[in-house]
Protein: tRNA N6-adenosine threonylcarbamoyltransferase
Amino acid sequence: SSAPLVLGIESSCDDTAAAVLRDREILSNVVMGQAELHAAYGGVVPEIAARAHAEKVDLCVEQALEGAGVSLGEIDAIAVTAGPGLIGGVLAGVMCGKGLSAATGIPLVGVNHLAGHALTPRLTEGLEFPYLMLLVSGGHCQFLRVDGPESFTRMGGTIDDAPGEAFDKTARLLGLPQPGGPHVERAAERGNAGRFPLPRPLLDRPGCDMSFSGLKTALLRARDGMVAAKGGLTETDRADLCAAFQSAVTAILAEKSRRALEAAPDVTGFAVAGGVAANGAVRAALTGIAEARNVAFVAPPLALCTDNAAMIAYAGAERLKAGKTDDLDLPARPRWPL
Ligand code: KG4
Ligand code: ZN
Structure:
């Protein structure tokens, strides 16, 4: 095949990842998580993450090459996440990419992590431009109109917490394990969403901006009220609180998605990415919104919705196709809006 062989490297949050792609074919996709390193702290600790990335990134690359059955010499380009993210982690990946590029002369391509997520529906489904994308994870929540490999328009997003962060905080408040999303979803299945009316911040305002921090406060108040009245929470209380929370998040995401689609009437597809896109209730609601507008709903496989290096290699290949590479002075950026 004539398509370039691209090595991708990702280390911007709490997953160290490397992958090898040729075109849309994923030859290997290695993800080394850090959940156990951060578990005792109730969240990602940047210093611990940075050290773990620096320790694991070389091995990760080695495994990705081995898994793809290729040697470094056969690689046509090295794509690396250059931001946004936790700077220590981004630096670890960028330094690895630069080292490999300097040693071999293989071109280096810096990739925006958000562009990686936003182009994933093209990698997995070949989705055509223009499309609307909802990126909804532990760190991000935004609508992007995608018109080309480097043409993104932000159409609104959270003004405070990301929904995944809110799921995680909800789990913490109710004594459920981290990461909280899947546990809250499971508990919500048995719950009555109507028992605790939670607010739906910004739902009555025009536009596609969202807010989730008020939900957390309301949930805390409901929990403390019950603890004060009865001395603790029953399984039913927990399930009902989870159901109320999940239904509020789902309602906000669905209504704002409806508005974003209304504001982008020419798109043919609506795609989601990010860990929260794994949530069954959220997926079902968004599918309905897309169907109502006659737009294809695309939810890439979960392993490619969450942080990974295949999406970075893919976005890097798109930049390479456009003739863009970076020098060894490529900066690592903690903030880098699309
Ligand atoms: O995309 P991701 O793996 O990492 C980043 O944040 O970049 O997303 C992780 C987030 C966590 O907050 C996790 O609780 C949430 O996605 N999550 C879920 C579900 N699975 C993961 N939230 C709701 N329902 C789920 N089933
Ligand atoms: Zn991400």
